[in-house]
Amino acid sequence: PWQGLMWETSTHPRLAGRAVDLGQVRWALERAVGTRDFSALHAASSVRRQRTLERISWRESGGGVEVGLRGDAFGRYGVRLLVGGAVLVGAGLVARSTQDR
User: Fold this and answer.
1) Phi first, then psi: what are they for 12, rounded to 5°?
2) For 50-80, how does the pLDDT look when each residue is reduced to its tens digit (9 = 90+)?
3) Res. 101: pLDDT tops 50
4) Of 86, 77, 76, which Cα lies nearest the Cα of 33?
5) In which element (H, E) is residue 88 found?
6) How distant, in Å, are the alpha carbons of 3, 6, 36 from that of 81?
7) What is the pLDDT averaged over residues 46-51?
8) DSSP 5-72
9) Do 15 and 91 meet the contact criterion of CB atoms below 8 Å apart?
10) Confidence at residue 4, expressed as pLDDT on a 0 to 100 scale
């Protein structure tokens, strides 16, 4: 049922041939929970203001992962950019911060 709605990391040019550590992806997403300025993670046309990411949900099934984000509001492309950034952490292309927020 999700065919055509899933992002396959193997098709992304920066990720081709790279393993993605799902534990690191989840870790990165969990660090984003809270109230903060997410303006770097949405289109410039979105209103710039503090937003609260209340929680993430994570379900692995059939070789894929379903990620759910619950928050008070998301800027345009915000969810896509947040998940994509977490995948870059999981692929080792972006360094994992040692600071928890």
Assistant:
1) -85, 130
2) 999 999 999 998 878 999 999 999 999 999 9
3) no
4) 86
5) helix 78-90
6) 21, 15, 15
7) 90
8) TS--GGGSTTTTT----HHHHHHHHHHT-EEEE-GGGS-TTS---EEEEEEEEEEEETTEEEEEEEES
9) yes
10) 74
